[in-house]
Amino acid sequence: MSVYLSHDPGVWIAAALTLFIFSFLYKDNPLYKFAEHLFVGVSAGYYLVLSFWSVLVANLWDPLTSALGGAHGSPLAARLGDYRAFLLIPALLGLLLFSRFLPRLAWLSRWSLAVIIGVYAGLKTTGFAQGDFVAQVQGSIQPLWTASWATTVSAWIFTVGLLTTLVFFYFSREHKGALGVASRAGMYFLMVSFGAGYGYTVMSRISLLIGRLQFLLHTWLGVR
Amino acid sequence: MSALDRLARLDRRWIFLVTGLLVLIPLLWPLNLPLTPAPPVRAYHDAIASVPPGSHVLVSADFDPAARPELEPMLRTTLRQLLQRRCKVVVVVLYQGGPLLVDQIVRDVAAAQGAVYGRDLVNLGFKAGNEAVMVLMGQSIPNTFPRDQSGADVRTLPVMRDVRNYSSFRLLVSIATGYPGTKEYVQQVQGRFHIPIVAGVTAVTAPTMYPYLQSGQLRGLLGGMAGAAEYERLMNERGAASRGMDAQSLAHVFVALCIVLGNLAQRARARREEG
Amino acid sequence: MKRELPLFVTAVVGLFMILSFFVPHQLVSVPADFLQQSAVIVVAFGIVLGGANLLRVNLEAVVKRQPDWPYRLVLIAGLLATVVIGLIEGRDFQALGTRSTWIYDQIYAPMSSAMFALLAFFIASAAFRAFRVRTVEAGLLALAAFLVMLGRVPIGNAITGWLPSGLRLGAVSEWILRVPQNAANRAILIGAALGVMATGLRVILGIERSYLSGEE
Q1: Does the pLDDT of residue B260 top 80, yes or no?
Q2: Angle of the A30-51 helix axis to the C109-129 helix axis, nearest 10
Q3: Which of A46, B1, B35, B83 has its CA 20 to 30 A from that of A9?
């Protein structure tokens, strides 16, 4: 095994910041706090610049200035995907969001929120209805008798699990008698589901540590 | 004081130290434990393998550096498989922290595969707006992404010549860490536009994707670093994910042991306090 | 009227978006497309607003010399440096070799990864100190966790390689994910979908108004 230290100052800075953050495992300290605050500032700055160039300039400023300059005909001759001067409406709504900084004018931002909430409420309602309700109920209807006994048993366990878990979430009646038994069975299926989720969560967290150690070993220290 | 009593009082920093060592040691001295690809991983690989050469495939790479160890290997191997099949690849990014990282990966894989940017593949970059962008792409992708990651007009690029909307693609590959991601593509795109979707997700999200896999809304699924490693195995590669699985194995055994020992220590303490 | 008119806008926009799912005619699809473009633009303004607000809150804390004000100065410096450099570098701020790309590669990306990597240590510690099996339900959870944790990594099949292929840990964990786990998750999806549909309609019809903050 050999070690080839990186000559890139950027890699050394990245390694130092990584170790500053890992120092929290021993105890909270100024190096960790420094790295934490730097991270928050740089992330916020990056998201801000990204939104500015990729949306505000590319999807608003460029088409608006082109339309108002009369480059391709009338500014009001909008069609699908090419909204020309009508883009002044979202521009105004976006600027109205900043009225939240002035308490007496903050109510103006409700117009912007109304459009955002309306669009996303509409999208979410139809998306969940189609993707998570109709398609899922459709997918649940499966043959309960097949040529393979293993598939048949699995299909029955699946169907019982689905129905009893749905019963568990039915709170309009007290869970007593048959309803209580079904609800308890549903809870057991939920526990199995949470256990599987926990197992996968452990995998996910360990993967993140593996990634950082691979960087420190191979990129920074150059261990081969 | 018995061993279990001492264990009950253990400073958690010892647990941190053992965790770190159990992950570090296999990275230096690999165990090379064999990998067995799971059925959802095979389905992912086979779905891509069944795309006719020359077809357009849309890859939505929606992750940031935090999910890199799990999702970067998936994206690299997917791009390699698509380029080896001579598919035309269009990459988009809807996750804020990801554009630069994804661009580096795309250019890296393209260079290694001898693919020509603009002719064989394109990275359209990032667009804010989550599901709204997904639905907008259903009307027109060139209107939603008028410029690519480097600022070039997409209508001048050969690979985008025949691209209108989702109907121009044979397959959608969603590699995602959270929101917006695979769930939103299934809800907003699969239901409306009926394009086949395969997904690579972080291990945290993977169990919640199984209902979509079973209903056919997803044709294949890679879950976490294990899924990425098994996919590399199917492609006869040994990438970063495969190299990390030995460390993953030892760490999982340690966490399982922690649960057992923690319960034994707590039971011993409770018995001692009762006695 | 300061509340009623925005509520009316939400209702009209929301109902239009639902209608656009069912009606492909351009009288509906073109305005729906415009509304979505508008939402994308307004959300981008919102992100800029968030950044500006972060700056304002931290500047106030520095001026008032709150206890951790030197660290807030670091936050402000990081934010302003990233924004100024990104704006000066123009549309190509993400090209190879730019200072913005360097900040992303050597500062943002490593710290983002390291922050989340800390979780690996805490999950091991929490497994030891907090995961208590005292009931049947907790036992089921622990059993499923063991089987999936060990079954999804190579060591699971390595230690059960002597069993028939259908009984090895890999196959068992895959069955748990495909059958009982799937059943419960699907029930959660269906239940959550009903909840989201109900909440979405409540918001669109103006019954749910909490997103309109303020008293006026």
Answers
A1: yes
A2: 130
A3: A46
Going from N- to C-terminal start, the domains of chain B cover 3-30+248-274, 39-238
pLDDT at A175: 87
Task: Output the average pLDDT for chain A.
Answer: 91
Residue B122: pLDDT above 60?
A: yes
DSSP character for A163? H
Q: Does A57 touch chain B (CB under 8 A)?
A: no
Q: What is the pTM of this model?
A: 0.89
- Taking the Cβ of residue C23 and every Cβ of chain A, the question of whether any pair is shorter than 8 Å is answered with no
User: C67-93 b/e with 16+ CB inside 10 Å = b?
Assistant: eeeebbbbbbebbebbbebbeebeeeb
Residues across chain C: 216
Query: Any CB–CB contact under 8 A between A32 and chain C?
Result: no
The pLDDT assigned to B1 comes to 65
Q: Determine the Cα–Cα distance for residues A126 and A108; give it in Å rounded to an integer.
A: 29
d(CA B200, CA B78): 10
CATH homologous superfamily of B39-238 equals MTH777-like (3.40.50.10160)
Q: What per-residue confidence (pLDDT) applies to C213?
A: 64
**Euclidean distance between CA atoms B118 and B157, whole angstroms:** 5
CB-nearest partner of B252 from A202, A208, A213: A202
Give yes or no for C178 touching A (CB within 8 A).
yes
Concatenate the DSSP letters of all residues of B187-206 into one string.
IIIIHHH---EEEEE-TTTH
Q: 3-class DSSP state for residue B91?
A: strand
Closest CA to B140 of B120, B110, B168: B168
> Could you say which of A54, A193, A200 has the minimum Cβ distance to residue B127?
A54
Render pLDDT for B1-58 as a digit per residue (tens, 0 to 9): 677 778 878 889 999 999 999 999 999 999 989 999 999 999 999 999 999 999 999 9
> Interface pTM (ipTM) of the complex?
0.89
- Say if residues C156 and B256 touch (Cβ distance below 8 Å): no
pLDDT (mean) for C83-112: 91
Element (DSSP H or E) covering residue A101: none
Rounded Cα distance between A165 and C183, Å, is 8
Residues 6+ away with beta carbon under 8 Å from C182 = A158, B210, B211, B214
3-state helix, strand, coil in chain A (%, to 5): 80, 0, 20
Residue of C75, C102, C165 best to disrupt the A interface, most CBs of A under 10 A: C75
Cross-strand partners of B173: B59, B198
d(CA C61, CA C116): 27
Per-domain residue ranges of chain C:
1-91
Among A65-79, A90-104, A139-153, C56-70, the range scoring the smallest mean pLDDT is A65-79
Chain A residues 65-84 with CB within 8 Å of chain B: 80-82
pLDDT tens digits, B202-234: 999 999 999 999 999 999 999 999 999 999 999
Q: Which two tokens stand for residue B147?
A: 């410029």
Partner residue opposite B248 with nearest CB, options A58, A210, A214: A210
The chain-wide mean pLDDT, for chain C, equals 90
Order of strands, sheet of B197-201, starting from the edge strand that comes earlier in the sequence: B121-126, B88-93, B56-62, B171-176, B197-201, B221-223
CB A200 within 8 A of CB B237: no
Chain centre to alpha carbon of residue C87: 27
- Cross-chain Cβ contact C154/B211 below 8 Å: no
∠C148-C149-C153 over CA atoms, to 5°?
A: 100
Give me the pLDDT at residue B196, please.
96
Inter-chain contacts counted by CB atoms under 8 A, chains B and C: 155
